[in-house]
Specification:
The longest helix is centred in the C-terminal third of the chain and has 25 residues. The chain has 155 residues and is mainly alpha-helical. The protein has nine helices and no strands. The chain is 67% helix and 0% strand.
């Protein structure tokens, strides 16, 4: 039938309140999500999506999305950005292996195709730009080196 009042009779597919999962199911989804998100080779694919994640852990997007929202109070995209940016930071600090990488090479290697998306994600996660972050890393390394030298001098 045709409904005149659009607010009534609406099926709310995305209504989280009709999702009923046991704590065990929630924990199961969470641990599977975490193990996938910690796999850099997976999250660095530019086409890695909520759909792909749900398929990988044998669940559906509604449940996975709901569990992420309920547990972390954020959506999948935000969670993915946090994991990716954490890896970017780890690589920025690992100058031995990644010191010759440009910032662009780093963000491309983690699935960001545009500088603006990467910069927005980086600032949201770290509260500063990548160049400021690199400057802080370098200053800390310099401090650590000086402290190590000073300690060596007192021996």
């Amino acid at each position: 039938g045709t409904t005149t009042d659009s607010n009534q009779n609406k099926t709310t597919d995305s209504n989280p309140s009709d999702i009923i999962l046991t704590q065990e199911q929630i924990d199961d989804i969470l641990s599977k999500v975490a193990s996938v998100m910690e796999d850099v080779s997976v999250i660095s694919k530019s086409d890695f999506t909520l759909v792909a994640l749900a398929q990988m852990i044998g669940s559906n997007t509604r449940y996975v999305s709901w569990v992420i929202n309920k547990t972390y109070n954020k959506n999948f995209k935000t969670l993915l950005n946090e994991y990716r940016i954490r890896e970017v930071c780890r690589r920025m600090e690992d100058t031995e292996n990644f010191g010759n990488f440009t910032i662009q090479a780093l963000y491309n290697s983690l699935g960001y195709s545009s500088a603006s998306n990467f910069l927005r994600a980086f600032k949201n996660v770290n509260g500063m730009t990548p160049s400021t972050y690199i400057k802080l890393i370098n200053e800390k390394k310099e401090r650590d080196k000086n402290e190590a030298n000073a300690a060596a001098d007192t021996k």
